[in-house]
């Protein structure tokens, strides 16, 4: 039986093609997806839209769709907005929140509450107590072909475990030197520090240090220290800490044992340059013992690392150890060029 067109079929055949309608719907979905992007308002009136990749105590890094990553100084930001939930550190406490613009310069709305931008740090952690581990291992060998046939080996390890409030750091070094098949130096060092981060800037540090010279007459010296510190910057990888501690020293050998107390000040500095390709660092400490026979004891390390790849780097380290007494000054200077691996 033949099939005749119905009024509904005729109306459908007279309607425009439905594909343009579908294309418009897809376009609207795409536009709504773009509206989910993060947006930063600058004090000069500019507006940058993209995805926030990092926001530390100094810079905000955003990746627009149309260009490489853009780095913006905190001081240039008026406000910003992200409709996607991220983990943000607010006064060193993690919150999974979305953030909206604020009419106040230098503020954002977090859960409809005015919050200073200076209190915010972007975090890739999932909880306040989540541990983050990092470290490096490096070695340097110096073989000098001369009349004394000198050979030097220097190996170093550094590991850090931290949460938003606790930071453990362990450093170890081994130095071995021979000259004409005679051992001139065989030294082992270990340094452990524990920081409790009271606030964004204030911390409490406990330190332990051990050194042993394994020659014919082994000599061991170690100290324990405790005191407050202030972090000028450094929630991210960069840092500048100033710490004051009260130290107790022990010096032990087969001939004598000696103990003394001292006040000490320590500066720890680390900064990354050129998107992390170059790292400069310094650890400086000076101690003032409570004995008239020693004016001060200083221990300084200055160095840099250059990344060859994401894991492999070249390093240069310069050490100066000095002891000043009323009669003379003893100074030990060491430097080495090494190859290391980050993990």
Automatic annotation (TrEMBL):
Pfam families: DUF481
Domain of life: Bacteria
Entries under InterPro entries matching the protein: DUF481
Protein name: DUF481 domain-containing protein
Species this protein is from: Shewanella septentrionalis
